[in-house]
Amino acid sequence: MPLAKDLGIRTETPANCQNLGDVRQAIDTIDRTLIDLLGLRMGYVLEAARFKPDVASIPAPERVAAMLPERRRWAEENGLNPDFVVPLFSQMIQWFIQQQTHHWEQKNAPGREAE
Length: 115
Prior knowledge:
Elements: H1 4-7, H2 20-48, H3 61-77, H4 82-107
Helix pairs in contact: 2-4, 3-4
């Protein structure tokens, strides 16, 4: 896990915050990092479409079934309620599947030459 200072947070831990400004700066920095990471994840999700032979192979329910228990464990290891984290990831995964499906269909549209 990256350290707070590696993310650009002024205080090393939440307990080191001196005022509400420190707390807000940390939260904003974390949220920006989460969004940056989601963008990076999207790049990998779209690239995965290159290795899928057809649209039917995109959802990969066995992969999703393997991912969610792992995310549950990660949540528990970090003191987070898995009843929040697992549905969050489930929704996120379904959205990324939709994006990958659309991307695959665009890349493989009839009449489109292979790039």
